[in-house]
Write a structure and sequence with these properties.
Elements (H helix, E strand, L loop, with lengths): L11 E10 L2 E11 L4 E5 L6 H9 L6 E6 L2 E5 L11 E4 L11 H6 L7 H14 L15 H13 L5 E5 L7 H17 L4 E5 L2 H7 L2 E6 L2 E6 L1 H6 L4 H6 L4 E9 L2 E4 L2 E4 L1 E2 L8 E6 L4 E3 L6 E9 L3 E7 L5 E7 L9 E6 L3 E2 L1 E2 L4
Parallel strand pairs: 3-8, 3-9, 6-7, 7-8, 14-21
Antiparallel strand pairs: 1-2, 1-4, 4-5, 9-10, 11-12, 11-15, 12-13, 15-22, 16-20, 17-18, 17-20, 18-19
Bound molecules: adenosine-5'-triphosphate.
Adenosine-5'-triphosphate binds next to helix 1.
Length: 356
Amino acid sequence: MKTDTSMQIPQLQVDNISIGYADRTVVEGISFQLKPGEIACLLGPSGCGKTSVLRAIAGFEPLMQGSITLHGKTVSSSVMSLPPEKRHIGMVFQDFALFPHLTVVKNIGFGLQKLPRKQRQQRVEELLELVELTDAKNQYPHQLSGGQQQRVALARAMAPRPDILLLDEPFSSMDTELREQLAREVRDLLRRDGVTAIMVTHDQHEAFAMADQIGVLGQGKLLQWGNGYDLYHRPSSRFVADFIGQGVLIPGEIIADNKIHTELGIVSGKITSAATSGQQVNLLLRPDDIIHDDNSPLKAEIVGRAFRGAVYLYTLKLQSGQQILCLVQSHHQHDIGEFLGIRLEADHLAVFSDLT
Ligand SMILES: Nc1ncnc2c1ncn2[C@@H]1O[C@H](COP(=O)(O)OP(=O)(O)OP(=O)(O)O)[C@@H](O)[C@H]1O
């Protein structure tokens, strides 16, 4: 009996790649892989090398070291690079790059010239339906909203069924409030068509809404690869802890397995990294780890308050002067200067020694 091995071959394998410009290395030793149908994001601050990695996958940047393999076929190494047009990739750019003189139908069908007319029409119709633009099919890009233009760009890139779709900050020209929603919509569309995709962004909310796996980059290195939950609750470094979500670090001492003594008392939970008894550490406290509890003997002074709609984000000062953050439902209103009863409730204890 024949076994189907296609599921075992990664759709994309990036193996120890380094990229540089004029002798300056900007990406160093990055490795990750995507299974067929998986959606990933490269996330990181400006200049950390995200776009360079995406451009290398597309075939626009040569590798100094390492290799890139698409569905079992090596497309880049330090000695060869298959030209972009031979890689069978799709790209969606920041500005969508739609053809202004072509209708929606013609934009979407642009990469399908080699298909017989009937099949081309069928694929375009299918995509129009998928991105819900059948009614706008004879319109020109300037007659569409930003979100509709983006769906056309997406459908055009998906039309030839690329092995992988690369998205370079596709929501950056949109309002912040819209981005997360669009990211979710795009994710649904990619899922429905089984597309493997990788998106570059510096917006963590977009990455959370879109990706199965997120790679956090800092100064050209891949610092952590995981899902949003892991990055938030089990950050592997201070950089990731700072970059993902909000939080503060408070000093503490490991007193036993999964127990830390801090100014807030003894905190129990799963310590996410190797730590030994007696070790001085800094414990990451997220705003959602601090629970408002009027009955708690532990009180902290409110020194800052930011309205976030459903919740207030309070900045609280402990006796030592150490500040922490706390999320409280916004129908509980408290003023600056008041003392709030709090307790700590954290499942995962992310700790960092001074050197990390
Ligand atoms: N063509 C180039 N020539 C020289 N240096 C470049 C070139 N492209 C990028 N760089 C440099 O490489 C580094 C990484 O750039 P890259 O665009 O990959 O980062 P990024 O994380 O995508 O940043 P952003 O979010 O601002 O787009 C930066 O220091 C950048 O200045």
